[in-house]
C-alpha cells in the first residue's frame, strides 16, 4: 500500500492503518513513515517508557513522550489535546485511563525523516537517500555480515540485558549465525576510546549492517563515558 497526503493530524493516519490491518485477505504487517508525518507527543504514559521520567508540569515539548506506538499499537486509547504552536508536527495526546497499560504493537513501524541542517534541502536529502536505498537493494547483496555495538549508559549497562538482545537477534536472524557468515558484538568498555574501532568497523568491506544501541543528542552519539580504571591518577581525573 502507498498512502500519500498532506497529513495535518495523526488521527486519519491511524484510522487508515487500522483499516488496512483488518483486511482479512491481505492484512497490513507494517509501515514506514516518510517525510513530515505528524509526531504523536504522548502524555500521562511515562510508566510505559523504559527510562524517561520528567515532571508533567515541565515544558510539554520536554515532558511528553514522542512515540509512534500511537500508530502501530491499536490497543492503546488516546484523547487528542492540541497541536504545538511552535513545532506544528508535534501533536499532544493523553493516554486514556480505560486504555490497556502495556505495549504490544499490532504492526511494525519505522520513520525516514531528514534532519534540519543549515544549507541543506531536507527533501533533496530524502530523495538522495531513497535513491541510494533502491540502488543498494538492486544489488541483491546477501545479508550475511552483522555488527552490533553498544554505548555507555544503554540499558543501564546491564550485561544480562545486553546478552538478551543477542539471543533475540539469533531468533530474528538465524541465517546470520550459520557457518560462513559473520556476527560481531562490541561493547563500549572493551577499550578506551571505542570511537576509532567503531569507525573502522563501519568502513569494513563486506559489512551489511552496523546496529548501534546507545544514547545520543541532536548532533552527538554517546559512545564512551569516563574511562574505567582503579589507578589513583585516573580516579582523580574522573
Characterization of the model:
With 238 residues, this protein is an alpha/beta fold. It has 2 domains: 11-111, no CATH class; 141-238, Rossmann fold (3-Layer(aba) Sandwich). Helix content is 27%, strand content 21%. The chain is built from 7 helices and 11 strands. The chain has helices spanning 11-21, 60-63, 69-72, 122-138, 159-172, 195-202, 232-237; strands spanning 30-34, 39-43, 65-66, 78-83, 90-95, 108-112, 145-150, 182-186, 209-213, 216-217, 220-221. The strands form 4 sheets. It has a 4-stranded mixed beta sheet with strand order 3-2-5-4. A 3-stranded parallel beta sheet has the order 8-7-9, covered by helices on one side. A hairpin with a 6-residue loop joins strand 4 (78-83) and strand 5. The chain is globular and about 55 Å long. The mean pLDDT is 91.
The total of helices stands at 7
Count of discrete structural domains: 2
Coarse structural class: alpha/beta
- Summarize the helix and strand pattern as letters: HEEHEHEEEHEHEHEEEH
- Poorly predicted tracts of residues: none
* Largest beta-sheet characterization: 4 strands, mixed
Report how far the terminal alpha carbons are from each other: 54 Å
- What portion of residues is helical? 25-40%
What's the rounded overall pLDDT mean?
91
**Content of β-strand:** 15-25%
* DSSP strand count: 11
Strand order of the largest sheet: 3-2-5-4
Large-scale geometry: globular
Q: Indicate the radius of gyration in whole angstroms.
A: 21 Å
